[in-house]
C-alpha cells in the first residue's frame, strides 16, 4: 500500500515476493520445504493483496516457474495486486516481449510492471543461448529496450542496430497503461548507464545504508546528466518479531541446517561462476563466514551464505526495523521489495507488525477496530456487553 509514512520520510511502497522456485522454513534443507506449486503461489498472492501490499516480484531463472505465465494466472485471482515480471533482453525478442507486455497488461487491467534482467550467471545464460560478455549484454539491452519502449508506446519502429533489426514494427493492441514501468537492478557502471538512459526504478540489494547511498548517488548523477530522474527501490528479506531476541532466534533457526560444505559451494558459485557486480558485493559483505553476518545495525547477511541475489535481511523488533527503513528512505529509497521464509507467514508478520508503524494498511485496521470477539472488544462491542449485563 502506498501511504504517507510521515512528513519527513515521504511515501513508501512495500512489495512482497512470490517464491516460484519453492519455499520453506530452513535454508539448505528439505525439512519443512514447500514445492513451487501454483496453489501455494495463489495463497500468497491473495493474502498479500488482502493485506495491502501493492505488488509482488516474481523471480526469473532456470529453477523458477515462468514469471509471465504465473502472473497471468494470479492476475485473474487478485484484485489490486501489481505483478513485477522479468523482461529478459537477449533471451527473447523485443517485438515479441512487447506483444506479451500488451497482452498481460490488458488482462490484468493495468497491473503489470517489468523487471529488466540482463545478466547474472554466464553458465545459466549459456543454457539460454546467450554468450555475450558482461558489458556487451548491456549494450544489447539498450537496443532491446529502445525498441520495446517505442512499440508499447504505440509508435511504429524501424531500427537497424548491432543486435536487432526491425522493419515497420508495431503493436495493433496496446497495453492498458501508457507504458508499463521498467524496474532494473545493476551495480556495474554499464548497468547504471542503462538505468540512466531508459528505466524508471533503479533497484539495489540490501547493502548497508552508506554503501546504498554511494550507489544511488552515482546512478542519480548519471541520470541527471541525461536530464532524467530515477526512483529508487531496495530488495530485502525481513525477520521481524515482537522482540529483538525473538527475531535473532528466528534468524539463527533459518540457517541452522546449513552446512559448511553448502556455504563453500555457494560462495564459489557466486564469486567464480557469476560476473554480476551486485552478487560480488553481496558475497563480500560476509565472505562466507558465519561470524561476519551482522554487516550493519539489524542488517544480517545469513541468507546470502547459500542464496544468490538478495542475501540480507533486516532482523529485529518492529521499532528497530522501522528505524532502519527510515534510514533507507532518507537516502532516497521509496520502494521496498520484501520477502521472508516462509513467505506466507512472514507476509502476515510484516503487515501486522510493520505496516501500522509505517503508516501503511491503516484503513484496513480502522475498519475492524469496533469488532467485538475473543481477540478484541471494540467500542460498540463494549456497549453491547454493558447493555446485556
TrEMBL record:
As one GO molecular function, the record gives:
alkanesulfonate monooxygenase activity
Q: What is its EC number?
A: 1.14.14.5
- Transmembrane stretches, start-end: none
What keywords are assigned to this protein?
Flavoprotein, FMN, Monooxygenase, Oxidoreductase
The family note in this entry says: Belongs to the SsuD family.
Catalysed transformations (reactions): an alkanesulfonate + FMNH2 + O2 = an aldehyde + FMN + sulfite + H2O + 2 H(+)
Q: Which InterPro entries match?
A: Alkanesulphonate_mOase_FMN-dep, Luciferase-like_dom, Luciferase-like_sf, SsuD_RutA_monooxygenase
Q: Know the name of this protein? A: Alkanesulfonate monooxygenase
Domain Luciferase-like intervals = 13-334
What task does this protein carry out? Catalyzes the desulfonation of aliphatic sulfonates.
Q: Which HAMAP family match?
A: Alkanesulf_monooxygen
Amino acid at each position: 500500500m502506498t501511504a504517507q509514512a510521515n512528513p519527513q520520510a515521504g511515501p513508501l511502497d512495500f512489495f512482497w515476493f512470490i517464491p516460484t522456485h519453492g519455499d520453506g522454513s530452513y535454508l539448505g534443507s528439505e525439512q519443512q520445504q514447500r514445492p513451487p506449486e501454483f496453489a501455494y503461489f495463489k495463497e500468497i498472492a491473495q493474502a498479500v493483496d488482502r493485506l495491502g501490499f501493492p505488488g509482488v516480484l516474481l523471480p526469473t531463472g532456470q529453477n523458477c516457474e515462468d514469471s509471465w505465465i504465473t502472473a497471468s494466472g494470479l492476475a485473474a485471482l487478485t484484485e489490486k495486486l501489481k505483478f513485477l515480471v522479468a523482461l529478459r533482453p537477449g533471451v527473447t525478442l523485443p517485438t515479441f516481449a512487447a506483444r506479451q507486455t500488451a497482452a498481460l497488461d490488458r488482462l490484468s487491467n493495468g497491473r503489470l510492471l517489468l523487471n529488466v534482467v540482463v545478466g547474472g550467471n554466464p553458465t545459466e545464460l549459456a543454457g539460454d543461448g546467450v554468450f555475450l560478455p558482461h558489458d556487451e549484454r548491456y549494450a544489447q539491452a539498450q537496443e532491446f529496450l529502445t525498441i520495446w519502449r517505442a512499440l508499447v508506446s504505440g509508435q511504429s519502429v524501424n531500427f537497424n542496430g548491432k543486435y536487432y533489426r526491425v522493419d515497420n514494427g508495431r503493436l495493433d493492441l496496446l497495453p492498458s497503461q501508457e507504458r508499463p514501468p521498467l524496474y532494473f537492478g545493476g551495480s556495474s557502471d554499464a548497468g547504471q548507464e542503462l538505468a540512466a538512459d531508459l528505466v524508471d526504478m533503479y533497484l539495489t540489494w540490501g547493502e548497508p545504508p552508506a554503501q546504498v547511498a554511494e550507489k544511488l548517488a552515482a546512478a542519480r548523477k548519471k541520470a541527471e546528466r541525461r536530464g532524467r530522474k530515477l526512483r529508487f527501490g531496495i530488495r530485502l528479506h525481513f525477520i521481524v518479531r515482537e522482540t529483538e531476541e525473538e527475531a535473532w532466534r528466528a534468524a539463527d533457526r533459518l540457517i541452522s541446517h546449513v552446512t559448511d560444505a553448502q556455504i563453500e559451494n555457494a560462495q564459489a558459485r557466486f564469486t567464480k561462476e557469476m560476473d554480476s557486480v551486485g552478487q560480488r558485493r553481496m558475497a563480500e559483505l560476509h565472505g562466507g563466514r558465519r561470524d561476519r553476518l551482522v554487516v550493519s545495525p539489524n542488517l544480517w547477511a545469513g541468507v546470502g551464505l547459500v542464496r544468490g541475489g538478495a542475501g540480507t535481511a533486516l532482523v529485529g523488533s518492529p521499532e528497530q526495523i522501522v528505524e532502519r527503513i527510515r534510514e533507507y528512505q532518507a537516502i532516497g529509497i521509496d520502494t521496498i521489495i520484501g520477502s521472508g521464509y516462509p513467505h506466507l507467514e512472514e507476509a502476515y508478520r510484516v503487515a501486522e507488525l510493520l505496516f501500522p508503524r509505517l503508516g501503511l494498511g491503516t484503513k484496513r485496521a480502522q475498519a475492524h477496530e469496533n469488532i467485538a470477539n475473543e481477540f478484541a472488544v471494540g467500542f460498540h462491542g463494549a456497549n453491547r456487553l454493558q447493555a446485556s449485563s
